[in-house]
Amino acid sequence: NAGVTQTPKFQVLKTGQSMTLQCAQDMNHEYMSWYRQDPGMGLRLIHYSVGAGITDQGEVPNGYNVSRSTTEDFPLRLLSAAPSQTSVYFCASRDLQGAGELFFGEGSRLTVL
Amino acid sequence: GNSVTQMEGPVTLSEEAFLTINCTYTATGYPSLFWYVQYPGEGLQLLLKATKADDKGSNKGFEATYRKETTSFHLEKGSVQVSDSAVYFCALSDNYGQNFVFGPGTRLSVLP
């Protein structure tokens, strides 16, 4: 069972560069989301989606774009990376029926120089 | 809005000690409550959950009881092991929205 798969696991960027963090889930979950985890800040929601073609902003959306063209995939795009975006990023998904738990990927560590 | 408060860490215990990590919440309605664990270098994993008042979630020797009267969901384990060293997150999901709200996390270190 693959669950939630994130790539890449590590990435170093220069300020101003762009990149996409990939996220895929094989559980047919309607809901997918991206969090960032920073020391002392816990987990903060960036963007989320409740189905293909539907996305919405979370707590810290600035500097990030998302799209949801399929149920399985939810990529996170950084259009012009800044040092403040140095963080560990987690993708997560859940079934919206009942008290569905959130399933997390293993994380992507991004460093912006 | 919804929020989760956890005791500040880090918590350092000796092996076989008793563990309590306090968690309280603010939410409308009747949220579901969760404890997640994050081992070094890994993503978060569900440890246990409870979906209604007085429910007790349990897993791997950890327990937590959903107390609506005190809006709490404290995590306990009777005898911790070195392998329990990790960061523990309390979280809630309300029945109206889709999103989870996480506490700041509590780092636990267990010494042999």
Descriptive key words:
heterodimer; A: 113 residues; seven-stranded mixed β-sheet; 11 strands; B: 112 residues; mainly beta; six-stranded mixed β-sheet
Summarize the structure.
By secondary structure, chain A is mainly beta.
In terms of topology, how is this protein built?
The complex is a heterodimer of chains A (113) and B (112).
Chain A: E1 4-7, E2 10-13, E3 19-25, E4 31-38, E5 42-51, E6 54-57, E7 64-66, E8 76-78, E9 87-94, E10 103-104, E11 108-112
Parallel strand pairs in A: 2-11
Antiparallel strand pairs in A: 1-3, 3-8, 4-5, 4-9, 5-6, 7-8, 9-10, 9-11
Chain B: E1 3-6, E2 11-14, E3 19-21, E4 23-26, E5 32-38, E6 44-50, E7 56-59, E8 62-65, E9 75-77, E10 86-93, E11 100-102, E12 106-111
Describe this structure in words.
The complex is a heterodimer of chains A (113) and B (112). Chain A has no helices and 11 strands. Chain A is an all-beta fold and 113 residues long. Chain A starts with a strand and ends with a strand. With 112 residues, chain B is mainly beta. In chain B, the strands form 3 sheets. In chain B, strands 2, 5, 6, 10, 11 and 12 form a 6-stranded mixed beta sheet that branches. A 4-stranded antiparallel beta sheet of chain B has the order 3-9-8-7, with no helix packed on it. Chain B has a two-stranded antiparallel ribbon with strand order 1-4. In chain B, strand 10 and strand 11 form a beta hairpin. Chain B is globular. Chain B starts with a strand and ends with a strand. The interface between A and B is medium-sized, with 23 and 20 residues.
Indicate the radius of gyration of chain A in whole angstroms: 13 Å
Which pair of protein chains has the largest interface, and what are the residue counts? A-B, 23 and 20 residues
Low-confidence stretches of chain B: none
Q: What portion of residues of chain B is helical?
A: under 10%
SSE class of chain A: mainly beta
Put simply, the count of helices of chain B is 0
Mean of residue pLDDT values of chain A: 94
Q: Span between N and C termini of chain A?
A: 36 Å
% residues in beta strands of chain B = over 45%
In total, the number of strands of chain B is 12
What is the percent of helical residues of chain A? under 10%
Subunit organisation of the chains? heterodimer
Gross geometry of chain B: globular
Number of strands of chain A: 11
